[in-house]
Specification:
By secondary structure, this protein is of the alpha/beta class. The chain has a single domain, classed as Rossmann fold (3-Layer(aba) Sandwich). The protein is built from 10 helices and 7 strands.
């Protein structure tokens, strides 16, 4: 990839990190992600590609004592380092320029809500796959364009279509909204062999609505758990799409 393009991408990612904001739900969903993946986790060396503020990194550190975290945004990496300390190894780099040594193969690679930010998600998945050990697994999670909350927004004329990017998406550096078929298409194009597919958290409300409903007692944690369980029945209507591959 052209060096000028990579330099602009590095600067853009750091600019986004400087103003990146979260809803509480964005943090909550991390715990549901790991629960959905736990039956498929493999022991050994783990790599997290994209760490944001380190919430999922911290969860991974409870499952992996040999954890490497890579991110191109200095602010995100600093937050994660402050959160985890010596529980992980930290690498400041674009995915496009990172090359682990041959002996640094990984048993588990996690790319959580990150592919939608990338210039070339297919190439990133292809390269990540090449860093796996023979028994290694690739864990991929992306936001779902067909989540119930987004479909409702379309019917309310708040979005032109399910895959449309909002102002917030652009501010957060999102480039694409995946559906289950386009997600799997890109993974297969990257050479990933799909071992498992699913959805995480049936989502009838927008992130800010969930935050407010929890705050004011309109819904509770039992409601959240029910939404998580419904995700197993209705994966295409969930907040996030999950693929596990090799």
């Amino acid at each position: 990839m052209n060096q000028d393009v990579l330099e602009k991408e590095y600067q853009a990612l750091n600019d986004i990190a400087a103003v990146y904001d979260y809803h509480d739900f964005d943090r909550d969903i991390r715990h549901y992600m790991i629960r959905a993946m736990e039956p498929f986790l493999v022991p050994g060396r783990a790599l997290e590609m994209g760490c944001a503020y380190g919430e999922f990194s911290e969860i991974l550190s409870q499952h992996y004592t040999d954890l490497t975290v890579i991110d191109a945004a200095e602010e995100f990496l600093d937050h994660t380092r402050n959160r985890l300390g010596d529980k992980a190894t930290y690498i400041l780099s674009l995915f496009e320029t990172y090359e682990p040594k041959e002996e640094e193969k990984y048993d588990a690679i996690f790319i959580m809500h990150t592919l939608e930010h990338l210039l070339d998600p297919v190439d990133t998945m292809r390269r990540a796959k090449s860093w796996l050990t023979p028994q290694g697994r690739l864990f991929l999670v992306v936001p779902n364009a067909n989540a119930v909350s987004r479909q409702l927004a379309v019917k309310m004329n708040l979005l032109p279509n399910n895959t449309a990017l909002t102002e917030v998406d652009h501010r957060h550096g999102h480039r694409i909204f995946y559906t289950s078929d386009t997600f799997e298409r890109d993974a297969r194009t990257a050479g990933v062999s799909i071992l498992h597919r699913g959805g995480i958290f049936f989502k009838p409300l927008a992130n800010f609505q969930i935050d407010l409903a929890l705050k004011h007692g309109v819904i509770n944690r039992e409601y959240m758990e029910a939404c998580f369980q419904l995700g197993y029945l209705y994966p295409d209507l969930c907040n996030s799409l999950l693929l596990i591959g090799s």
